[in-house]
Write a structure and sequence with these properties.
Layout: E1 16-21, H1 29-36, E2 40-44, H2 52-65, E3 69-72, H3 78-86, E4 91-94, H4 100-110, H5 136-146, E5 148-153, H6 156-160, H7 162-167, E6 173-176, H8 178-184, H9 194-209, E7 213-218, H10 221-230, E8 234-239, H11 240-257
Parallel strand pairs: 1-2, 1-8, 2-3, 3-4, 4-5, 5-6, 6-7, 7-8
Length: 259
């Protein structure tokens, strides 16, 4: 069974840096990011047209590069969570988790017996198609150990329950959904308002107190450094679309200015 390389990163103090994939699900994407030094990538299904055929392909691309891949699924539904894991994702990011009850249901869908009720289909992509004869309980334990579960805190209810959510066995990371949180607070884009900052501090503190990770998406590298200083240990530098646009716009300005 190949070793899993996202699990050792969870809960450690070192800053892990990656990016989101919203558009470029190309064969070379895993190796491009790995060569640049990325620690992880997040393939987004929530805000794109990507389906599970694309997930299945990008998992292979990232496995070939040795780059951990997290799949952000479009909902909390069991069939989204378990299918992403069956496709071989190293971790699943689940949106808008507002309560301990929701978190428990997600853990139940993501973990095999005895920690959950994930449907059993072994010998497929999540086991790298290996032909194995070990007892089911052994294989369940391996999959439960390698699977990472990232829950998004995106409303004040989720922030208020962050400590209880982070304390659940099977939850590995809290990821702040900053835009949705600001909207839920009735202040779209107001990331410096006291209630937003209080919810953010509560989320980071809950994750760290429980020995879990905390993550957030930054608009650029400068903001990413600020987030790392705040206590986030997983930071995404923007996403593929914006990284290309930013680099091209900067280069264009340089060429046209002659400097």
């Amino acid at each position: 069974m190949p070793t899993q390389n996202l699990r050792p990163l969870i809960g450690s103090d070192a800053t892990k840096v990656g990016t989101f994939l919203f558009e470029f699900a190309t064969p070379g994407i895993g190796q491009i990011l790995k060569a640049a030094g990325a620690d992880f990538a997040v393939l987004d299904m929530e805000h794109t047209g990507f389906g599970f055929d694309t997930v299945h392909q990008v998992v292979r691309y990232c496995q070939a590069a040795g780059l951990p891949l997290i799949v952000r699924v479009p909902s909390q539904h069991r069939h989204h969570v378990s299918r992403a894991l069956d496709a071989g994702a190293d971790g699943v990011m689940v949106p808008i988790v507002s309560s301990v009850a929701q978190a428990r249901a997600i853990v139940d869908a993501a973990r095999y017996w005895p920690g959950g009720t994930r449907g059993v289909a072994l010998g497929l992509a999540h086991e790298r198609f290996a032909m194995r004869s070990e007892p089911l309980v052994t294989r369940f334990a391996e999959q439960n150990a390698r699977t990472c579960l990232i829950l998004q805190i995106e409303d004040p209810q989720g922030a208020a329950a962050a400590d209880e959510i982070a304390a659940l066995p099977g939850v590995d990371m809290l990821w702040l959904g900053h835009n949705d949180l600001s909207v839920a607070l009735g202040e779209p884009g107001a990331f410096d308002r006291p209630d937003f900052l209080e919810a953010e501090r509560a989320t980071i503190a809950a994750a760290r107190r429980q020995g879990k990770s905390a993550g957030r998406l930054a608009v650029d590298a400068r903001q990413g450094a600020q987030f790392a200083a705040m206590g986030y240990d997983f930071v995404s530098i923007a996403g593929d679309v914006w990284l290309l646009q930013q680099a091209f716009a900067s280069g264009l300005a340089t060429v046209k200015s002659g400097k």
